[in-house]
Specification:
alpha/beta, seven-stranded mixed sheet, 10 strands
Length: 419
């Protein structure tokens, strides 16, 4: 997705700085570098073009640069790919992998090559704009802000226009292209929340970028489809918005339907796999978690005192991102039904919150309709007769509310009902 975000960053940033700029998305099926065909398309669509700026490409396409030079266009290249001999023929080339470059961090992405160039221009020529340009780092792992303020347990109820970020941006005059980039990014995060890939604020991390966002944006390349819809998420024309609405015309549902199959692949990477089974050597019907908590004989530890869990969970959070080959640790929880509190939460309410007798909160998304009555009946029966435990697989996490941090679990699936 580097080319997409490079283009969005350049289009939004340069527009906000006062440039008359338009984005051209090359057809990747012609090859990675821009070609004379791209120059011809640009000239036909924007005949008044005076300069060509390439991002995430341009260090090696001599024929494309020659075509631009024939039209009298100076060519500026920002790229992160290896420069091949005899070297770039562009007027200016900024790239960490140039033949004569001594820059240490050669692995940076194309968007990160373009960003410092825009920031440097801002510092010299538009010193009143550093806040706006620095906001373009919004997608960096570990610094993704919550675009809608506090995380809403019901993703469908999220209104991006009520987000802190959008309210700040609306308070001052900004270029429409600049605003649309942030609207699109907020819609992307909302959409991933709607399909269960973002369930709390901490989910927006390097793992989310690497295993959810990037695969979704790159999925057209794997299916032979066009990339334009991915780019349009961040550049949808505001003139097409319905009256009285300020969200982009590129609606979340359309985006969700298009990319959901690819996003679902990511979910399977986070399930207990062969690597985890070999670690615990569990047999069919045996424990399915890396750690088994509860009162049963096969459990590793009880749940009566949750304080010892705090440090392992905190250290596990520091091991992110998780993905293929380094899967998310899974906890198996055995819960006694006696004393279990089961509540429905959410706007519909479509989610469940289970609180064990020892005070461990367990969230279970989008199952209230199917599971609430069953669990309530089981809890009521437990008061009259002795029943076995309920077994779930879950991921553990730290939740901070009003300054108080505690361990909570997010249930993946129910594996055993001790009826």
């Amino acid at each position: 997705m580097d080319g997409i975000f490079s283009g969005v960053l350049g289009h939004a940033g340069l527009s906000e700085l006062g440039f008359d700029v338009a984005p051209h998305l090359p057809d990747y099926r012609r090859g990675h570098e821009f070609a004379p065909e791209d120059v011809a398309e640009i000239h036909a669509k924007w005949p008044d073009t005076r300069l060509l700026l390439a991002c995430d490409g341009g260090v090696n396409p001599h024929r494309g640069i020659a075509a631009a030079r024939a039209l009298g266009w100076p060519t500026l290249v920002t790229d992160h790919h290896e420069e091949l001999a005899p070297g770039s023929t562009a007027d200016i080339t900024v790239a960490p992998c140039r033949i004569d470059e001594t820059y240490t961090h050669t692995g940076i992405c194309g968007a990160h090559v373009l960003y410092p160039a825009i920031e440097a221009y801002t510092r010299v020529h538009r010193p009143e704009k550093p806040w706006e340009i620095r906001l373009l780092r919004v997608a960096a792992p570990k610094t993704i802000p919550n675009p809608w303020g506090g995380f809403d347990v019901d993703p469908d109820a999220i209104d991006i226009e009520q987000s802190i970020l959008m309210q700040l941006l609306r308070a001052e005059p900004h270029h429409p292209v600049f605003l649309r980039a942030f609207e699109g990014f907020a819609i992307v995060l909302k959409t991933f929340a709607q399909v269960g890939k973002i369930r709390d604020a901490d989910d927006r991390d390097a793992g989310f970028c690497g295993f959810c966002l990037a695969p979704a944006m790159n999925s057209p390349r794997r299916t032979g489809a066009a990339l334009e819809p991915c780019f349009a998420v961040f550049t949808a024309d505001g003139a097409e918005r319905p009256p009285g609405r300020r969200q982009p015309a590129c609606r979340p549902r359309r985006f969700r339907q298009r990319f959901r199959p690819r996003a679902e692949v990511v979910r399977h990477h986070h399930q207990p796999g062969a690597a985890r089974r070999s670690q615990r050597h569990w047999a069919p019907g045996g424990p399915k978690g890396d750690l088994v908590l509860g009162p049963d004989a096969d459990c590793d530890a009880g749940r009566e005192d949750l304080r010892p869990l705090f440090e392992p969970v905190r250290r596990t959070e520091g091991l992110k991102p998780f993905g293929h080959g380094s899967t998310t640790p899974v906890v198996e929880i055995a819960i006694e039904p006696l004393g279990l509190c089961v509540d429905r939460i959410g706007s519909d309410p479509q989610h469940l919150r289970l609180v064990t007798r020892s005070g461990l909160p367990c969230l279970w998304w989008n199952v209230a309709e199917e599971k609430f009555d069953v669990l309530q009946s089981f809890v009521q029966r437990a008061g009259r007769t002795q029943l076995g435990t309920l077994r779930f697989t879950a991921t553990s996490q730290l939740d901070t509310f009003r300054g108080d941090t505690r361990v909570q679990a997010v249930i993946n699936e129910q594996i055993i009902t001790g009826a």
